[in-house]
Amino acid sequence: MNTITDTAELAMQSTNLFKRVTVLLYGVFAYAIGCMGLFWLILGSGEIAPVGLSEWQASNTLLAVLTNTGLIVLFGVQHSVMARPWFKRQLVKIIPQSAERATFMLMSGIATMSAIYFWQDIPGTIWVVESTFAQVVLWSLYTFGWIYLLLSTFVTNHFELMGLRQVYLYFRNQPYKPLPFTRKFMYRYSRHPMMLGVMIGLWAIPMMTVTHFIMSTLFTIYVVIGIYFEEKDLIKDFGEVYQQYKKEIATFVPGMY
């Protein structure tokens, strides 16, 4: 009888270990896909990496604009809907709770890469900066914006944000504890430094083509809408603490909305 019980317990432990390892590997894979999407956006926004690799291209400007708008809408829906508490509650009925954030990162990477891959080229140029000094300033701002974004993720906890901390704790069979609200470093001056970095990176380039202008504009619109919904959730999560933070700290730049 003891032998049967020991065998059953061993089988259960093996199954549990396999599940924890699988969730950990899934989290690492999701992190890689999410990072690929982010870095393609970073390089593509500076026209360092190509965008719009799909063989299908719109036959006219209006169709191209509508297609690009649709791609950003899909991107925005994925980001906003999957970030809502009601969606998370439904998702964890299907997958382990520790894999919820990793799933968000996986779908985020797929949505980002899909938008860039299918992006439609639109002829024309909005501006070209020819001054060498001005080009250096703009490229410096571009670099600063994306580095500022990445540094902001580490201030809040990069691994939590990207879903790695959750799957690691699950792998170690340790309970998950939410991180406390933070207002350190850039969060002492800006409530959304990540989004500020994104917008600097999107707009601070010496040559703005119409294709890139549409991309920057649509992503900026998404940022504004996304922040509105995010702050509603933050108020629910942190209550008066975030309400007071919102009164004291600017959305992006001190002294400005």
Describe the structure.
- The protein is mainly α and 257 residues long.
- It is 69% helix and 3% strand.
- It is built from 10 helices and 2 strands, in the order ααααβααααβαα.
- It has helices spanning 2-45, 61-82, 85-91, 100-117, 132-156, 158-161, 164-171, 193-203, 210-238, 240-248, and strands at 125-128, 207-209.
- Helix 1 packs parallel to helix 4 and helix 2 packs antiparallel against helix 4 (100-117).
- The chain is globular and about 80 Å long.
- The protein starts with a helix and ends in a 9-residue tail after the last helix.
Record the strand order, biggest sheet. Answer: 1-2
Number of strands: 2
Mean of pLDDT: 91
What kind of assembly state do the chains in view correspond to? single chain
User: Roughly what percent helix?
Assistant: 55-70%
The H-and-E topology, N to C, reads as HHHHEHHHHEHH
| Largest sheet properties | 2 strands, antiparallel
Principal-axis shape equals globular
**Secondary structure category:** mainly alpha
Q: Round the Cα radius of gyration to an integer and report it.
A: 22 Å
State the end-to-end distance.
71 Å
Number of helices: 10
